[in-house]
Amino acid sequence: MVFGISPMLIKMVVKNVLVIHLEPLTIKVVMYTRESVPVNDMLQEETVTSVYWSIGVFQIKKDGCQPCDCDPGGSYDNFCDVITGQCKCREHMTGRNCDIPKQQYFTASLDFLLYEAEASKSSGQVVIREPYRDGREDTWTGTGFVKAFEGGFLEFIVGEIKTSMDYDIVIRYEPLLTESWEDVLVTVRRPDYDQLDPNGPCTQINPEDDIKHASLPANSRSVTVYPPACLEAGKIYKIRLDFRKSSFDKETPSASVLIDSIVLIPRIDNIPWFHGSTPGESRRKEFERYQCSNPSYFGRGGKIPEICKKYHASIGAYVFNGAFCKYFPFK
């Protein structure tokens, strides 16, 4: 059987365009690419393993067969209608390729799960910033920053998790010192450890896994905390930053740093169409070659390569299932 279809012989002829012969574990696609050439000269045969293809993998067109090209994030698979080429779209996606959000929905960016420092519980000082008046791009989101001091903390309430998976915690900041801040303790506080989904990706998480350390380089504006945090859909978390030692070598009681926000970035390790098949591995290599997860792409004024924009849209559709537009109706 191939994806639940019993072995059978299927012949489809549309204007002498296509004949499909389905066998166990193999699909033989015979294409007549141009009607004006004798059939024997036009015959092309391609054998594809059933892991990647099914009956609807090609869309029939006048000049031959076209790949379905279903959006990996907006569709359930890469199989399409053999006549129309329509892919099977996720709930809030539409279009032939399933790459268009339905009305009242949008494709969320990878930094959709952004939490402003000003809205956090904090021992620091809120610093309001006015937009630059000389045309420069703002380097912060929200209204400004929180000025955190050595020994201080910020605690973020994190929700809106739609998909259970690993997320990178990215800290956005502006340094106030010429040296790096050397020790920030990052703690993920879960509602419970004894009620983790036994069939989910976070089932093996224990309290020690939720204690992480980071440093804030003086020559950067963002840092990715390692290892990532495994978060489950529908649950509320607290992520706490404790600013311990600014320097391990000397006392710096007046040390401070401006914290803009934290962002939760989905990791592609948990996204099925980035691995497990030849096309998946190809996507992964391309994603990594163009450094599509680079935190600098998600800040203000970030120059994102076009190929990364496409991947970001597909990941957003998959992870957030088409984010709902929140708006207030006109009265």
UniProtKB/TrEMBL annotation:
It comes from the Eukaryota. Its main location: secreted. Residues 107-320 form the Laminin IV type B domain. One of its GO terms (cellular component) is cell junction. SMART domains: EGF_Lam. It holds the Pfam family LAMININ_IV_B. It is found in: Secreted, Extracellular space, Extracellular matrix, Basement membrane. Coiled coil: none annotated. Keywords: Basement membrane, Disulfide bond, Extracellular matrix, Glycoprotein, Laminin EGF-like domain, Repeat, Secreted. One of its GO terms (biological process) is cell development. This is Laminin IV type B domain-containing protein. It comes from Rhamnusium bicolor.
